[in-house]
Design brief:
Layout: H1 17-23, H2 27-39, E1 41-43, H3 44-50, H4 57-70, E2 73-78, E3 81-86, H5 88-94, H6 98-103
Antiparallel strand pairs: 1-3, 2-3
Helix pairs in contact: 1-4
């Protein structure tokens, strides 16, 4: 049986600080998160370049998967594209101010 998109994302109540922090411990993943914070959302195919990353596509996919499994990102399918966005509301509800601290911004400026 194939997993649905919702099955691939932890529920908000299942988010764990240690997993989120571990996912954000890598500079490439922080770059992805910062880019998405500015864009709001992005097709996966554009995100690697928008983030200014010079890593291979498989490595980028790995970083994206780690962020998704930790509950930092949400992916949705739109036609032939996978659209990625930050789970800002869920993260702020579970860990107030964490995303703003990671991004170095005021909490009210994080999308």
């Amino acid at each position: 049986m194939m997993a649905t998109d919702d099955d691939r994302h932890p529920a908000a109540q299942d988010l764990r600080l240690v997993k989120v922090l571990a996912a954000l411990a890598d500079p490439a993943r922080v770059s992805i998160v910062r880019t998405l914070a500015g864009l709001g959302e992005s097709p996966c195919v554009d995100l690697r370049h928008a983030a200014g990353l010079t890593i291979s596509q498989p490595t980028f996919s790995h970083h994206q998967r780690v962020l998704r499994q930790a509950g930092v990102l949400r992916e949705r399918v739109q036609g032939a594209h996978r659209i990625v966005s930050l789970r800002t509301e869920d993260l702020d509800a579970c860990f107030p101010g964490l995303l703003a601290a990671v991004l170095g911004t005021r909490p009210d400026l994080v999308r």
